[in-house]
């Protein structure tokens, strides 16, 4: 694994909303455009350089509607320097054809999950033809994919993608281990290390996130092993035992503090662009 020269700090991605939590249960979840913009600004100030976005409609329901997506991409770009990454995972109920249309909103980056996984009582569907089609279309649109790996088998699918289709737009390969989903790999140091050991040599950087209570252990494991971080209410809504997250920027600030302690301070947005190969 060869990171681009000069990058030694920590990429912090914030995933502020996701598709799973209900606004009614968690009023502080940013769902309106105004809330997303306020969150993006505060998280950038706290040390984030990438924002992973799921968009909600006026009723706070997850949507892949192109109008909403485009408006969010443009507004976040206007308000911040963050790398704007749109989720192509959507919710478990979104049809594959709709998920492909996410690229029409012209984000800097998109998530690209490398295989199907059990997702609690549901199934998060990512069959090979869909994964390959999304990969090829993202390159045509000059969108940098972030490869989401929920399970070790997904590393093998990334290998297959690189073998059959070559490198993505930008020439870098950044992966994110999403651990702790019921049905995917557990949020443990051992699982993250097993994934890292299997990564194809084309991979230039990796990050990890722990869903739920594995959040802090996975953060510490990733930082100590040279990885990057993803935090946010999509993945974790408990700040510490008995205290719910009040704002996404608390999670970013805690990640940034830990990164600084380990002498790997947060990357700027410009450094993040270089690391990921995202267009200026
Ligand atoms: N909401 C999950 C079903 C992604 O953003 O690409 C999928 C997910 C992954 O969150
Ligand atoms: Zn997501």
From TrEMBL:
One Gene Ontology term of the molecular function aspect: metal ion binding
UniProt entry keywords in alphabetical sequence: Metal-binding, Transferase, Zinc
Pfam families per the UniProt record, alphabetical: BKACE
Superkingdom of this protein's organism: Bacteria
Cofactors (names): Zn(2+)
Keyword Manganese: no
Coiled-coil blocks: none
Name by which UniProt lists this protein: 3-keto-5-aminohexanoate cleavage protein
Source species taxonomy: Bacteria, Bacillati, Actinomycetota, Actinomycetes, Micrococcales
């Amino acid at each position: 694994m060869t990171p681009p020269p000069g990058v030694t700090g920590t990429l912090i991605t914030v995933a502020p909303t996701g598709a799973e939590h209900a606004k009614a249960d968690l009023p502080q979840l940013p769902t309106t455009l105004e809330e997303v913009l306020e969150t993006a600004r505060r998280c950038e100030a706290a040390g984030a350089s990438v924002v992973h976005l799921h968009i909600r409609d006026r009723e706070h329901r997850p949507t892949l509607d192109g109008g909403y997506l485009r408006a969010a991409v443009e507004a976040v770009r206007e308000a911040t320097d963050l790398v704007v990454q749109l989720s192509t995972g959507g919710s478990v109920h979104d049809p594959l054809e709709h998920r492909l249309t996410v690229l029409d909103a012209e984000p800097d980056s998109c998530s690209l999950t490398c295989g199907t996984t059990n997702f609690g009582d549901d199934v998060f569907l990512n069959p090979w033809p869909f994964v390959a089609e999304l990969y090829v279309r993202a390159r045509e649109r000059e969108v940098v994919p972030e490869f989401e790996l929920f399970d070790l088998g997904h590393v093998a699918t990334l290998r297959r993608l690189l073998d059959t289709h070559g490198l993505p737009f930008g020439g870098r390969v950044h992966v994110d281990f999403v651990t702790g989903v019921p049905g995917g790999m557990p949020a443990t140091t051992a699982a993250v290390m097993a994934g890292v050991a299997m990564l194809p040599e084309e991979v230039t950087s990796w990050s990890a996130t722990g869903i739920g209570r594995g959040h802090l252990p996975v953060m510490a494991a990733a930082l100590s092993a040279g990885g990057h971080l993803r935090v946010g209410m999509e993945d974790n809504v408990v700040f510490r035992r008995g205290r719910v997250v009040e704002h996404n920027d608390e999670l970013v600030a805690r990640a940034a503090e830990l990164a600084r302690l380990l002498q790997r301070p947060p990357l700027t947005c410009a450094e993040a662009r270089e690391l990921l190969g995202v267009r200026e």
